[in-house]
Amino acid sequence: MIRPILLSALLAMATPVVADTENAAPRPVISEIVRADSAIMRSFDGVIEPRDQIDLAFRTGGRLARISVETGDRVSQGSVLASLDQITLQQDLDAASAAVVSARAAADLAAAQLERGTALIDRGVYSQAQLEQLQTSSDAARAQLNNAIATEVQAREAAHYGNLTAPVDGVILTTNAEVGSYIAAGTSVLSITGGSEIEAVIDVPEPLFETLTTTSQFEITHQVPGVDPIRATLRSVDPVTEGKLDTRRMRLTLIDPPADYRIGALVLARPLAQQTPTITLPQSALTTLDGQLGVWRITPDRTAEFAPVTVSTEIGDRITITAGIDINDEIITRGASSVSIGQHIGDRIQ
């Protein structure tokens, strides 16, 4: 009887133990319901700026005597915005005019001497060398007169250009000089809007910028309560990333903005939802199965199934999913590496 009993014991030891998965406790995990609200629902701080800006400068140098406007002032075409020291300019003009009178007298005297020498050379009073010297003196005096006349013209133009006027109707954006300082010709003194069109300017992080398209539309909300939001379209994107912030500057054309949207007003810009929603998940949701990238999706009966996905842009600690999952799918976002196909998952805790 010993031999059959021993055989039965050995057979019992060789039989694998099958886990009772039906009675096993459901695995607790952290999951997320897929929403189309990652980049699309974000808002970006912005400011209202003119579409065109004109920098104004004096065409002549001088000491700045007066600035007649301040930032935000509305001005009309032809209005005097700033002036140089007219006393100094007038003194320069008076000195240039006096120099012309002196040079003309010297030129007239040299011409008279040359004419007299030409008449006397026939009588043998002047030599040819003396006549050539008179000719040289006359030419030099004439050149000095021409130079003095040119200086007077410049001084007269400088006096005329001593006033800086508005080239168009617009709004003063900045003042870039202080009264009393010396202003070189061509140095920007004021900037003014170049037209009536305004736009919203926002800075968008580089990863989020890549999720937008040239046809993206935005909702612009004024930061003053009670002002109705408006729509805007993407006009342009600055080609260079803004410094260490790793952002791209976007310029949005406002559609029928009311008067409340003035230059300098602070706004919020929110991209409007597009026909193809943007879906993102935490990067911790990604895993691989048999060399294929994917996520674990929880089925309606609370079991895990592997869903291969196609990924795109990283947005911080999240990543854009372009294919493989749908809106309202429940995805495991923590512990994905230890989940198996068909594993029973516990109920989601709200």
From TrEMBL:
Pfam families: BSH_RND (PF25917), RND-MFP_C (PF25967). It is found in: Cell envelope. Its main location: other. It comes from the Bacteria. Residues 1-19 form the signal peptide. The keyword ATP-binding does not apply. Residues 55-189 form the Multidrug resistance protein MdtA-like barrel-sandwich hybrid domain. Belongs to the membrane fusion protein (MFP) (TC 8.A.1) family. This is Uncharacterized protein. The lineage of its organism: Bacteria, Pseudomonadati, Pseudomonadota, Alphaproteobacteria, Rhodobacterales.
